[in-house]
Amino acid sequence: MHLDHSHDGPAAVSADARRPDGTRRSLRIGLGGPVGSGKTATVAALCRALRDELSLAVVTNDIYTREDAEFLLREAVLPPERITAVETGACPHTAIRDDISANLEAVEDLEDEVGPLDLILVESGGDNLTATFSRGLVDAQVFVIDVAGGDDIPRKGGPGVTTADLLVINKTDLAPYVGSDLARMSADAKAQRAELPVVLQSLRSADGVREVADWVRGQLTAWTA
């Protein structure tokens, strides 16, 4: 257990890049977003895309169950010892932003047990547009929304949409069926986010996660440099 960390919420400086033995720890990337937006599917697709080139692991968050972890286990995206679950027992905000101790222990235990690792993905439980990760827990965050939630979501903003290091507009294949205007969503997202990147994604296509996987590779390159 490693619970002697202090943190000051999402604006805090990232946790130390070195492990207690002086070696570089893994890059930690958080994935948040509303219920049903496709966070777990994105995590699964990233694992499939990156597992042959990187040593990675996953921490999932659910309020009362291990459902997301069990989905990843059924899909066999990683060996079972590289997937662990946190049951938050309360609002997902708490476990990723306000009291990160359970998640921090989970990522550090993974590094101890199956490390050294290049990357740990931390998936938040489904939440709303205000979900953000403490920088004491993750080094970068991805926020996932989907077209079925309404094409006005990027315009509504919120910390998840406006401040995440990467915004993913997911399930673009559904746009014709739910009346969402992808061009409008993209323009509104870019207006909210200035220079921060936006990816439109459909995991129905064979290389649907490619842009997000390339972004993760870029983050890892910067981290290891």
Automatic annotation (TrEMBL):
Residues 1-31 are annotated as: Disordered. One of its GO terms (molecular function) is GTPase activity. GO terms for cellular component: cytoplasm. It is found in: Cytoplasm. CDD domains: UreG (cd05540). GTP binds at residues 33-40. Homodimer. UreD, UreF and UreG form a complex that acts as a GTP-hydrolysis-dependent molecular chaperone, activating the urease apoprotein by helping to assemble the nickel containing metallocenter of UreC. The UreE protein probably delivers the nickel. Facilitates the functional incorporation of the urease nickel metallocenter. This process requires GTP hydrolysis, probably effectuated by UreG. Pfam families: cobW. GO terms for biological process: urea catabolic process. It comes from the Bacteria. Residues 29-199 form the CobW/HypB/UreG nucleotide-binding domain. Keywords: Chaperone, Cytoplasm, GTP-binding, Nickel insertion, Nucleotide-binding. This is Urease accessory protein UreG. Coiled coil: none annotated. Belongs to the SIMIBI class G3E GTPase family. UreG subfamily.
